[in-house]
Description:
The structure holds two protein chains of two kinds. Chain A is α/β, with parallel strands linked by helices. Chain A has one domain: Response regulator (Rossmann fold), CATH 3.40.50. The radius of gyration of chain A is 12 Å and the shape is globular. The N and C termini of chain A lie close together (12 Å). In chain A, 37% of the residues are buried. The model of chain A has no long low-confidence stretch (mean pLDDT 84). By secondary structure, chain B is of the alpha/beta class. Chain B folds into five domains: 72 residues, Arc Repressor Mutant, subunit A (Orthogonal Bundle); 199 residues, no CATH class; 72 residues, no CATH class; 82 residues, Rossmann fold (3-Layer(aba) Sandwich); 170 residues, 3-Layer(aba) Sandwich (Mannitol-specific EII, Chain A). Chain B has 26 helices and 13 strands. Chain B has a four-stranded parallel sheet, covered by helices on one side. In chain B, strands 10-12-13-11 form a four-stranded mixed sheet, sandwiched between helices. Chain B is elongated and about 110 Å long. The two termini of chain B are 65 Å apart. Chains A and B meet through helix 1 of A and helix 19, strand 11 and helix 24 of B.
Amino acid sequence: MKAIEIAFVCESGLVGSVMGAQVLRKRLQQEKLQVTVRTYRVQELPSDASFIVGPERIIRNVLRKAGDHVFFINQVLIEAAYDDVIITLRKELSRFD
Amino acid sequence: MIEFSTRERDILFYLLTKTDPVQVQDVAETLGTSERTIQRERERIGQSIEAFQLQLDYIRGRGLVLVGDESSKRQLREALLLSHKMLPSTDDRQVELAYRLLQEPGMMKLQALAHAMYVAPSTVSQDLERIDEWFQEYDLELRRKKGIGAEVIGAEIDKRRLLISLIFTQWDVLSFYRLLQGDLDQIPSLLQAERKRWIEAINQSYAVIAPVTKQHDVSDRLIMRATIALTIQALRMDEFSMHYELKAYPIEVLQRVDRLEQRLPYALNIAERQWLSEELRNFQQDHLDTSEELVIRLRVKRLIDHVSLLYGESFLEDSALERGLISHIMSYTRQNVVNPAYVIKQIEREYPRLFDAVKQAAETVFSDQAFADYDLAFWVMHFGAVLSKPVPKTPYRVLVVCSAGLGSSKLLMNRLRQEFPELEQIENSSLFGIDRLNLSEYDFVLSTVPLPDISQPHLLVNPLLPQDEVARVRKLLVSLPKSFQQPLRKDTPGWLDLQRLEQLVRTARELAERFSIETISSRSEGLEELLLEVSTVMVTKEIAHSAVQLSTQLLRRHEMSGLGIPGTRLALFHGRDDSIRHGAFLIFELNRTIELLGMDQLFHPIERILVLVAPEQASDELLQLLSSISGAIIESDERTTQFEYGDEAQVKIVLNETFRKVIERELNASET
Lengths: 97, 672
């Protein structure tokens, strides 16, 4: 099974995703989940990304595959905004345990 | 049998551990005596060792050396060891000195002490310095008057505690019981001077204590301690008064004291009752408490002496060994879950001769406490660690096992890294995967599922590793003083992409050079004019082609989503656009406050605008560096404040630190 990797997307790939990823990574560390978070500019998002996080207006139109997880996070700096991401990650990880 | 004096013994003992000549000065320093003394002893020693076909040579400029073949040396070593028990060692002498000082209510003259102990006043002086720390440990003060004498200042209760410890260093439980059974020669030489008083008092105290202890499961050692405590009380209470301190005791302790008092032929005042309460409290907790550390320390010293002699290699200079052994013995418990047979086997294989030496020495020194081979194996490891120096301690290699080898073992690995930084190599495997691994490459195994029978030390743990399990793992680690594993050969570091590194460094330098803090003095109300002014500055700085195009872009970004950073006076305008020529980060200080939409979709007052831009076609290196700035802005409150209020020079420092991290990551990338 391929390790889960979260793709954090924003328009330029410079600010929103970087800051959001930083908040998310901190959250993951608190939750003791070892998951990589990478940041992407929306048009450079790899097609095999399956765990996608970003502002709704940016990733609304991203093409999805079956089984993809997409999370609309509009308030990227707020830790609580990632609750759903964490819950889903937990579920995903425990499926293989 | 040849008799050796204490000093001869010490000198020979030291020289036996050396193969090369030793400077007289070094011998003197090690033994805590003068060069002259060593020189004086030389001739006598030379005569004493003739019988062993050994010679004590002095090589000019190099020092003293014992000459002779190995078997002769071994014979000498054994002879020294046999005489070891009968002669008071330096430690014994110091214990006696401390004991004598404690017996005296006031100042004791140096001369009198020296005379009573048959040593030179200078020796007493030296010894006083050594034993000073013992007193300190018991909250006592050894007040010395130069050339006159010394006096112990402090509370009676502390004096008594130290006395008990001193007696324990000289007396073990076995000979204590022999004394009780009538073998009066078992009294330690320390108490020999007042032999009759002591024997009488001890027998009386034991008669009082014995019935009380029968109802409880009290260890022999504690009974001995309580007996001595009661004896010291009987001997001292008339001359030295105790002070009462208001303190609460458990009811069982008080009941026990009551029962004792009823059996005593004399009455106790409240302070003396307290003394018994303090002492009897220990009955409940059957472990070595800290007051016994002194006892253990002196015994460990003697153990190290013995092992050095038996093994023929000096372990004396290693203070870490002493500390390690002491803490090992102090924290000694039988709850270690390590597979003992495995450890013993490993140790016996690694240090066969050392194991014998330690075992033999332990029997002599700790004759009253039985230590299993299992415990001794750990002691051997402490000694072995000295031998194998200066090889640096290798990090532990740990295998973490769970049923599937994914989630819970990952979780456990994370917890382990948090709690045990010393575990540098943590690997994981599934239960079925362990068949494929060479388990002997790991120091120990932690598992979330029951394991089949494996030879490695292993523990079953909860993947969340709660605190009590942390303690269990810690215990396991303590019992493995050093990793058995050879350090893993580091993989040759990967290829360092110099071109990429150069590009990264150059880009970082350019970004740093382009950075500045500008002041915007726009009088106009609108954001549009403000952004145009910002863009114009960027054009003059040759960062952008067209001020109009750039300001439009920045405005569009702002309209799409808020850019204000909540809780700060900052807004971060950014974008990638054709009109950008070079990547840049700039700060614009506004001369007034404007209300801007923040990232939380609320309006915030903004006084500083940060601009982060990159060309549409930007190198990886540039994007990496620019991203690192975004990250830095919200990295910590301190960092945020630096971006909010810092002047140009301060922000430059922050940028430099941020870039350094990126570059270091690049350099280390090949290693991970």
